[in-house]
Structure formats: C-alpha cells, structure tokens
Design goal:
The structure holds 2 protein chains of 2 kinds. Chain A is α/β, with parallel strands linked by helices. Chain A contains 17 helices and 15 strands. In chain A, helix 7 runs antiparallel to helix 16 and helix 10 crosses helix 12. Chain B has 2 helices and no strands. Classes of the chains: A alpha/beta, B mainly alpha.
C-alpha cells in the first residue's frame, strides 16, 4: 500500500485512505500541487494548474466526510484533463493560439462534472497537440510536452499531457481524447494505461471537437483497476452529445477478477506486424505468449486495416478542415505550422474520396467484426516504435523512410475509425523506453479489454514503471 | 499531378487563401491524401451495400406523439 500522498499511489489507494480518514483530501491535493510545481517546468505537461479550485474541492470533501456524508468512489483523487475539456473559468484552448481569444468556459465538460461527482479533485488542464491533430506531443504555442522517461524524447500526442502527467506521478487519472490514436500513442510512449471506449460510450459534451464522427474521450491511469474505477464513474447517457449512445452504466470494476481465463485472443500479424519495429512486435508477442497460459491464443490476419486506416486519414483530414474552414480563411497565420498545411490540404479534397472513405469504413468494420467471431480480444502493438527524439521528422519503417507524424499513429488509427474499444497497456522493462500494446474488443465490450489488461498487470507483463529519474 | 492547378481551382472555389510559402506543404499533404485514396480505390465494394452515406439518426424525443 503506497502512502496516499506519494506520486505512485493509485486512485484506489487514495480514495480508500481519504474515505477511511487515514489521510485528508487536502493533504493529497497539496502533495499533488507541489509535485506539479516542481516537475512541470521540466515536462510541460500542464498548461493550467487549478490550485485554488483543487484546494476548495478537497476542503469540501473533507468537510463532507466530517459530517458523515456519502463519499464517491474517487474521493480525494487528483485528476487533470486535456485542455480541450471545458473547465469553468478557463478558455478551452484545445492546444491552439486562436481559441485563447474565446471567452472562458461557463461550465465544466460533462466528464469533468462526473469526475467531481465521484469525488475526484481537478488539479489542472493538460498540454496537447493543436486541435488534437497530432501524434507527437509537440506544440508551437505551448512548447513540446516532454516524455518523463526521457525528456529529450516525444511524449506522443495528441493527449500528450495525459501520458506525461500520469506517467510522472502528477495525476493518477487524466482524461483525454482519441480520434485516431490520441490516447493510445501517448499512453504507449509514456508507459501508462489508457481506455478508448466504444464510440458513443462516454459523453463528449463540453469538449472542443476535432472530428465529430471519430472523436472519443476516455481515461488514462497507471493501472487497470484505476482505469476501470474512473471509467465506471464516467459512464452514462447524456443528451447533450448527439453520439452518446444512451446506454445504461455497465460497471467493469467488479468484473476484473474474472481474468483472462478461457478467452480467445487473436494476435494480429500481417499488416500490423509489418508496420511495427521488432521491439514493438516483441511487446505484443510477450503479452500474447503470457495469455497463452490461460487463454486460447491464435494468430489473426486483418490486413483490411490498411484500407481502414486510409479511410480514417481522409475522413479526419476533410472533416476537421471543414470544421476549421473559417479559422483557416481568416487566421491561418495563427495555426501551428505543423497542423496548418494539413488542415489547408484537407479543405481541398475531392468529395468522391471522402464518400469512398465512408463506404470503406463500413466495409472495414465488417471485416473486423468477422475477426471477432473467432476471438474475444485482438492484440497489436500500439505504436510502431518507442518515443522518437523531439523534433524528429522521419521514421524508418519496414525498410522505408516515412513521415513520422502520421506514422506514429499508424497502428492505432484503424480501430477508432470503426469505434472499437481499446485498452492500451504498457509492456516494457524497467529502465527501457516504454512501449504499449493494444487490447481491442468488440463494440461495447470494454469489460473484456479491461479484464485482459488487469490479468496482464497481475501477471507482471503490463506495468507502468516509474520513470528512471523519478524512481531513483 | 499538378497540385498547383488543383490548389488554384479548389481554394478559389471555397475562398480559402493559400499563401505562396505554404503551397509546397499543402501539395505534400494532398499527395499523401492521394496515396490514401489510391489504397481505397483497391477495395472493391458491393453496389448493393447500404453505405453510400453516413446515416443521420433523428432523435427519439420523449413525449413527441402528435
């Protein structure tokens, strides 16, 4: 059991300590704020620290406990959100310069409110790639978010601050978004867990959009149990998000103990293996091999993913550019140079490409669903490689040199395009560069992904090892 | 592909200024998009599929009976 004020205390440990009176919410919040104050100049994970709000929320929780009130499952747990979530009183910058001219948000995003309702304490807003069009964690306006395992390397993006803050012990739970891999890439490169739920599972109300038809939101944490704890608190219908499916809460926390025994696991080869470097392939294989002790593991080829990824690329490019068209017309100079030309190009694509992309997206969903007839969970590397050096522009992959920015999300992109739930688990040795493995489930079966993640963690295969400097 | 001609025509159509210093970058991303479109072209789809357009689902409003 970790000291609840330590950087590595889990959300479950903190909530237990605060609920039992072993530690106050105020002490947990002060310790978290002090860590952010010390570490953020080096990592640049936070863009705003909501210290006054955190202290007020923690004090209210301690007062609630003193009078015997009901306390939520995340009582006293510090959390932070990607800065595309509305936080009352702050402009929702979404990683951009342009949005800073917007008036401050008048209310919190739905999921911020749900975290608060569960007892969690908001510590701040997190760095991200501009308008979420990013896999690197670099940002021309706020500066690069740095990888806690090696500050000279990328954190991954676009939920860069989520990966970095949670990995560095600056937020046991963080909330981010994932349109093409934006939770999974930073989780993998920073060595933490993330959950991109099924499209439509969690409310996006009060978040700044990137690609409405592909945008997901979800949590990042240092373990499967914390991921489930947060996810359970975030679920529920919300008429303010047109895509929110309105499903009743389907709790997962109590199902983690069911483990992976008897499940059918498909290890994705073919295109997925061919686009991963050896170390990334080894991470996926290590997870599959371990699962072979209790589950039926078989190779699966799903090469339609290449077309699915191409469809996701084009839909993203066109839909996001159309959304930003007025800003591109009037304020192109204020965009990050690394997103501007892509957005401009996206506004000029032939309609026939986009309609074909939507049809292929449907076809690709059919191909993926067919794979789930013989597998409960599919496994693939989350990124082709560990974190590249800051500023890198090219990546060698499969013997060819390719543009690094789109390639970092290559293996994640096909699954968000068809809305499948994916848990990313960190699979790397202590002291080695982090890598992540995707556990992909059928629609609405987040529980399966979380069960496998929890089993891999209990088995010691998946672990969010502290960064070397922090552990020393 | 002459991306300059494409940029001239389509950007004018939607009143989107593309500064001269950005043309090379925009052309590079159009080329990448064209590669993606070529990948999609290799997928043969059934004419009978009901997938020509994303389906818009009107909300089911409670108490909406007339």
């Amino acid at each position: 059991m970790n000291d609840p004020t330590s950087p590595w205390a889990s959300a479950a440990e903190i909530a237990h300590a605060v609920r039992s009176g072993a530690c106050s919410a105020a002490a947990v919040a002060e310790a978290a704020l002090e860590r952010v104050r010390r570490a953020n100049p080096r990592l640049n994970a936070y863009t705003e620290v909501t210290a006054d709000r955190a202290r007020a929320e923690a004090a209210a929780l301690d007062a609630a406990r003193a009078r015997g009130a009901d306390l939520g499952p995340l009582v006293g747990v510090p959390f932070a959100v990607k800065n595309l979530f509305d936080v009352a009183g702050l402009p929702t910058r979404a990683g951009s310069r342009i949005n800073r001219d917007r008036p401050p948000a008048t209310a919190d995003a739905a999921l911020v409110a749900r975290m608060n309702a569960a007892g969690a304490v908001l510590v701040g807003a997190l760095n991200m790639g501009e308008y979420a069009y990013d896999f690197t964690g670099e940002n021309a306006h706020d500066g690069a978010c740095r990888n806690p395992h090696d500050p000279e390397r990328m954190s991954g993006g676009s939920s860069s601050g989520c990966g970095a803050a949670t990995a560095a012990g600056l937020a046991p739970v963080s909330l981010g978004s994932d349109t093409n891999g934006s939770l999974r890439v930073p989780a993998a490169l920073c060595g933490v867990f993330s959950l991109k739920p099924t499209y439509g599972r969690l409310s996006r109300a009060g978040t700044f959009p990137f690609v409405d038809s592909l945008d997901h939101v979800g949590p990042c944490a240092r373990g499967a149990r914390d991921l489930a704890l947060a996810y359970d608190a975030l679920q529920g219908p919300d008429p303010r998000d047109h895509a929110c499916a309105g499903r009743a809460v389907e709790p997962t926390l109590d199902r983690l103990a069911e483990g992976a025994g008897g499940l059918r696991i498909g290890l994705l080869g073919g295109w997925f293996a061919g686009n991963a470097r050896p170390e990334a392939r080894r991470a996926a294989t290590a997870a599959a091999d371990a699962l072979g002790e209790v589950a039926e593991v078989a190779p699966v080829t799903l090469d339609a993913a290449e077309a699915g990824r191409a469809a996701a690329y084009l839909i993203t490019n066109a839909e996001s550019a159309a959304f930003h068209l007025d800003r591109l017309r009037t304020r192109a100079e204020d965009f990050d140079p690394d997103t501007r030309d892509r957005f401009l190009a996206g506004a000029l694509l032939p309609a026939a490409w986009i309609v074909k992309a939507q049809r292929v997206r449907r076809w690709w969903l059919g191909q993926a669903l067919a794979a789930f007839r013989s597998a409960d969970v599919l496994i693939a590397a989350a990124t082709p490689c560990p974190a590249p050096a800051l500023g890198a522009r090219r990546l060698t992959l499969g013997g060819a040199e390719v543009a690094l920015r789109p390639a970092l999300g290559l293996l994640a992109q096909p699954f968000s395009c068809i809305g499948l739930p994916v848990v990313t688990v960190p699979v790397f040795a202590l002291g080695a560069p982090p890598l992540g493995v995707q556990l992909v489930g059928p629609p609405w079966r987040e529980d399966l992904c979380l069960r496998v993640a929890a089993w891999l963690e209990a088995r010691g295969i998946a672990a969010a090892h502290p960064p070397p400097a922090a552990a020393a | 592909m002459n991306w300059d001609a494409h940029i001239d025509a389509t950007a004018a159509l939607i009143a989107l200024p593309v500064a001269p210093e950005r043309r090379a970058g925009v052309a590079r991303f159009l080329e990448l998009a064209a590669e993606m479109a070529a990948t999609l072209d290799r997928v043969e789809l059934d004419d009978g599929g009901l997938d020509l357009a994303p389906v818009f689902a009107p909300p089911d409003l409670a108490g909406g009976a007339r």
